[in-house]
Design a protein that fits this description.
461 residues, alpha+beta, two-stranded antiparallel sheet
């Protein structure tokens, strides 16, 4: 009976395509604004072109910054976002956007943010959904389908729910709930905020209230958005939470992406009202995108069974990975917040405050002569900060130093590090075993036994 229900759900249940149109237009516009903002701030130059060394993701060291041609990647990505918004050659535009945006993300691991990963993930999912069914240039000059399979809309809803729910589960830990960490460190520094800065942000009860409130928000907001009776309340909470977060923390466009993304949970009447708003604020494109065209009562979105099965299979695998990747930390011993093995790509948002110090020593293994490295000779201040407390960064940098000094003629090179890290307000502790030659260790998915175990315990998910 379950398989019969799933089969009918996937093949026979069709709904209005308006939510996909709203999501596509909103996503494209926000991505265009985000890229222009990134360019305007000068971050392309300071984060990618200026540094002489870039930290890479394991298995993606072949992704390189292209010098001044890096600007071309951003141009391609911005044009693709515009084409997504207007629905022009959508299938090609979303693929180009996904590839160009993900390439940008992979160029330097230093810039990793959860919302960059969110954009790459959601744009990959969008490659297999008919978001150009209506209100697009494609639908004006080609086939126009007012109804789409229900699973295509539900898949976007499901992904947003996964992000929120895993973020909520991650907050169920003793540091976040019992110590209000790291909010107790961050919020007092917001003393310059009007009205609330010198008063509320300094109160300990506010730190605990926001910690517990953030946990309940992430866990409950998917359910509030799903059900009709609580949807308006849920959306108000989404708007308040993300705008307040944007005021407190410099996290770019992410709050607005999540606000716009939550619109997909609303009914068709609301979706068409939003489309009418878009129509009212456009001029040239309104005649192209929003002109009604002989709507047929039973018109549906259809693809050949072979392509449909392939899309379903890819989407199924996508969600399988999204559900399992955040759980991979259970296969590593030790404290996750300390060793960060399985921390990225798991929707753990703003849970830790770490400060580190890493002093590298280059040793001749035969003569035992050594000297210390000035990190600012090779890294920007931001790169050095990120490297100082993340073990995979430390290992990659050690290999870079080993290769660099070997190429300069140094013999029998070994690389050691004297590293200390402070986690969530605790005293600084030794982080990396100083007796281990990091130049002789290769990066892998195996447990990093050269990380000194954390002396404390953080209980939680």
């Amino acid at each position: 009976m379950i398989f019969h229900f799933i089969r009918n759900y996937l093949k026979t249940r069709y709904v209005d395509a308006a939510p996909l149109a709203v999501f596509r237009i909103s996503f494209g516009l926000l991505m265009f604004i985000s890229i222009i903002r990134f360019w305007y701030k000068g971050w392309i130059k300071t984060l990618y072109i200026d540094p002489s060394f870039h930290f890479s993701y394991f298995g993606f060291s072949w992704v390189k910054v292209l010098g001044d041609y890096t600007y071309l990647i951003f141009i391609i990505c911005s044009l693709a976002s515009v084409f997504i918004a207007i629905g022009y050659k959508y299938k090609y535009s979303i693929i180009v956007f996904f590839l160009s945006f993900t390439y940008i993300e992979l160029m330097d691991k230093t810039t990793y943010l959860n919302h960059y990963y969110f954009i790459s993930s959601i744009s990959f999912l969008m490659c297999f959904l008919p978001l150009n069914a209506i209100y697009s240039i494609d639908s004006k000059f080609g086939k126009k389908f007012h109804q789409v399979p229900k699973w295509t809309i539900d898949s976007i809803k499901f992904f947003i729910c996964i992000v929120y729910f895993y973020a909520g589960l991650a907050k169920i830990n003793s540091d976040w709930l019992l110590e209000a960490m790291p909010l107790s460190i961050w919020l007092p520094s917001k003393y310059d905020l009007p009205v609330i800065g010198e008063n509320l942000m300094q109160k300990q009860w506010v730190h605990y209230f926001m910690s517990w409130g953030g946990m309940f928000y992430d866990l409950l907001i998917p359910f509030l958005l799903i059900y009709n009776r609580t949807r308006i309340i849920g959306f108000i909470l989404v708007v308040f939470f993300h705008l307040f977060t944007a005021v407190l923390f410099p996290i770019g466009m992410f709050p607005y992406i999540m606000i716009v993304g939550s619109l997909i949970f609303f009914d068709n009447r609301t979706q068409h009202k939003i489309l009418n708003i878009y129509k009212s604020v456009t001029t040239y494109f309104s005649n192209i995108l929003f002109k009604e065209q002989n709507k047929k009562k039973n018109e549906t979105y259809f693809k050949s069974p072979l392509i449909s099965r392939a899309n379903l299979l890819i989407v199924f695998v996508f969600f399988l990975l999204q559900l399992t990747i955040p759980l991979r930390h259970i296969f590593y011993p030790g404290e996750l917040f300390w060793n960060e093995q399985g921390y990225r790509f798991s929707w753990r948002v703003m849970l830790i405050e770490k400060r580190g110090y890493s002093n590298f020593k280059i040793v001749d293994s035969i003569s035992k002569k050594y000297f210390y490295v000035q990190n600012d000779d090779f890294l920007t201040s931001y790169q050095e900060k990120q490297m100082s407390f993340q073990p995979d960064f430390i290992l990659e940098y050690a290999h870079y130093l080993g290769d660099h000094f070997t190429s300069q003629g140094h013999q029998n090179v070994q690389v050691f590090v004297d590293s200390y890290v402070a986690l969530n307000g605790r005293s600084s502790e030794r982080f990396i075993d100083p007796s281990v030659n990091l130049y002789g260790i290769k990066e892998s998915f195996k447990h990093k036994s050269w990380i000194i175990p954390f002396s404390d315990e953080i209980k939680g998910f």
